[in-house]
Specification:
Elements: H1 3-9, H2 50-63, E1 67-71, H3 74-85, E2 91-95, H4 100-113, E3 116-120, H5 125-130, E4 136-142, H6 154-170, H7 173-176, E5 190-194, H8 199-202, E6 212-216, E7 230-234, H9 237-250, H10 256-266, H11 269-287, E8 293-297, H12 307-313, E9 320-325, H13 328-338, E10 343-344, E11 354-356, H14 368-374, E12 380-384, H15 390-403
Parallel strand pairs: 2-3, 2-4, 4-5, 5-6, 10-11
Antiparallel strand pairs: 1-7, 6-7, 8-9, 9-12, 11-12
Helix pairs in contact: 1-2, 2-10, 3-4, 3-9, 13-15
Length: 404
């Protein structure tokens, strides 16, 4: 099956008892057993639930993965990756242009626990690989990044990680004074890609060499701003085994109705992403002509420094547009307060358009110096371009520019 067919049919077999085309939502917390340990594959809904299983099957199919695990939020999914696969003293290498919540999780939750995070400001795969040493178990990247919309070449990063891993494995014990990394079928250093902005409709990191894909399904996957969720999809089933254990043991699972909402959203993901891309390109082209914006960032614009990579790696440029307003913080505040169709709100990826000020909203938890180093200045605003008529959206922004 091709992508849009998978999105509609995987995890949606007709319900056998009644023939219901849409499977019922299993809201039960527990399952009656014929005898202790004799059941129909389900015991307790924290461990597994038919509605969640349907969603996970669809998520794995859309990303081209072996298996998937759904979580109560994107950050719960990220926590499971670190908590299940790393141990105190392990290091994680990350590109520094990160979602603020991910940075906060690395720095304020897992760093005190014993994680050693390392960041690079470079998208060069060789520079990323240079930060990897014998303690590294995870390389974490977003592409496109939030909110600067920078791209990383996933295939090139994957090759660099594998080459560095091979080099570390080949080092003799006599040279390093440590035992070499063990050789097995599963990589010791895992490449995780946050694919929230692109979704599998536009980009499939596992096919490009990534080991894990992480999503905030709150965003485009759900698509209607009415559910919080997250997911991890793995290229190998064995990689998901410890994450599944963590999912059950830590309990950060989505409820069945949340799973139903995300799964329903997936059915229209392909067609929605096409409209998001069309509208975002229209908005970005208009914004690029406005003197009020010092800088307009969108991978679909030829002015984007990685436009060629976006054309090669993605099959659409996404629904996010980032702009830097002349006038700094006060100009940004007035602009965000003046829009009508673009609601000033956290989050992104819904059918309605949203406008956000990362420095004081989504990335406020990052120290100012860290934010500004990656480009999140006070005049920067992030647009999540929805599915409204593009002309109406442009008019809304034009009026707000006048009123600011």
């Amino acid at each position: 099956m091709r992508f849009s067919t998978k999105a509609i049919h995987v995890g949606q077999a007709p319900e056998p008892a009644t023939g219901a085309t849409v499977p019922p939502i299993h809201v039960t917390s527990t399952y009656t057993q014929a005898a202790p340990g004799v059941h129909k594959g389900f015991e307790y809904s924290r461990t597994d639930n038919p509605t969640r299983r349907n969603l996970e099957e669809c998520l794995a199919a859309l990303e081209g993965g072996a298996a998937a695990a759904a979580f109560a939020s994107g950050l719960a999914a990220t926590s499971a990756v670190v908590g299940a696969l790393l141990r105190p003293g392990d290091s994680a290498v990350a590109y520094s242009d990160l979602y603020g919540g991910t940075y906060r999780l690395f720095e304020q939750v897992f760093k005190p626990w014993g994680l050693v995070p390392r960041y690079t400001d470079s998208t060069d795969p060789a520079v990323i690989a240079d930060l990897i040493d014998r303690t590294t178990r995870l390389v974490w990247i977003e592409t496109p990044t939030n909110p600067m919309l920078r791209l990383l070449d996933i295939a090139a990063v994957a090759r660099a990680v594998r080459e560095k891993e091979t080099l570390l494995k080949s080092n003799a014990t006599s040279t390093t004074g440590q035992a070499p990394l063990k050789s097995s079928g599963t990589p010791e250093i895992l490449l995780a890609v946050d694919n929230t902005f692109a979704t599998p409709a536009l980009q499939q990191p596992l096919a490009l060499g990534a080991d894990l894909v992480v999503h905030s399904t709150t965003k485009y996957m759900g698509g209607h701003s009415d559910v919080i969720g997250g997911a991890v999809v793995t290229a190998r089933a064995e990689t998901l085994t410890p994450i599944r254990f963590y999912q059950n043991a830590a309990g950060g699972v989505p409820g069945p109705f949340d799973c139903f909402l995300v799964h329903r959203g997936l059915k229209t993901l392909d067609v929605r992403m096409r409209r998001h891309c069309e509208n975002a390109l229209r908005v970005a082209e208009w914004a690029a002509r406005q003197a009020a914006f010092e800088h307009v960032i969108y991978p679909g614009l030829p002015s984007h420094p990685q436009h060629e990579l976006a054309q090669r790696q993605m099959c659409g440029f996404g629904g996010m547009v980032t702009c830097v307003l002349a006038g700094g913080l006060e100009a940004a505040r007035r602009f965000l307060s003046a829009t009508k169709l673009f609601a000033c709100a956290e989050s992104l990826g819904g059918v309605e358009s949203l406008i956000n000020h990362p420095a004081t909203m989504t990335h406020a938890s990052m120290p100012r110096a860290v934010r500004e180093r990656v480009g999140i200045v006070d005049g920067l605003v992030r647009l999540s371009v929805g599915l409204e008529d593009a002309d109406d959206l442009i008019e809304d922004l034009a009026v707000a520019l006048v009123r600011r």
